[in-house]
Amino acid sequence: xxxxxxxxxxxxxxxxxxxxxxxxxxxxxxxxxxxxxxxxxxxxxxxxxxxxxxxxxxxxxxxxxxxxxxxxxxxxxxxxxxxxxxxxxxxxxxxxxxxxxxxxxxxxxxxxxxxxxxxxxxxxxxxxxxxxxxxxxxxxxxxxxxxxxxxxxxxxxxxxxxxxxxxxxxxxxxxxxxxxxxxxxxxxxxxxxxxxxxxxxxxxxxxxxxxxxxxxxxxxxxxxxxxxxxxxxxxxxxxxxxxxxxxxxxxxxxxxx
Length: 257
Fold this sequence. Notes:
25% of the residues lie in helices and 39% in strands. The chain has helices spanning 2-13, 17-69; strands spanning 73-79, 98-99, 101-105, 110-115, 122-126, 129-134, 145-150, 159-163, 166-169, 171-174, 184-191, 201-217, 223-243, 249-251.
């Protein structure tokens, strides 16, 4: 009888199956609540990290852009966005107050184009000799791009942007390697200071840079995007330059000189 009473007391002091199930349910509910609290915090942490990385990339991009444009001499020109995807944004186009493509003469005597737009398949020339080809898929939109052209006195210091074969250049290259932007898509808008007209001296340009994160395609196949970071800077010129709106890039049935 004493042994039975001892076992009975021991069973009462232990954990029953019902108590165990209730404990597990309560623990699960608590973990779910904790997970619900941690998930937004984790997402916020990831977003802050992305923002910090984007700011570092933005700062480096601005520094490179300032270094490139500081070498402008003679003139600077800004191209407005093309009206359609099939329209040539440069050849036979006049300048504008603001836009995504900047043109200037550099200290080596080449005409430079700076943009974050895509580059069509471009044949590279050294004089009249073909030296290579840049494929369109090698330079996609959203990356900082520089292209260089030889100005020709025979066509009033204009340069050939396109010939019978398509787009041409002396050189074309991305400023940063693939993957540098960590999935961010770069857009740049250049603009002249207020009150600066064609033919007037200009000491600097304004530049607004935006980083977008490309997201999933919608029903039409178009990628949606989310603004990650926007910044602006001033591009100072070391040498005397003037705003130029006249046509400088031409199409020619022939080869680039």
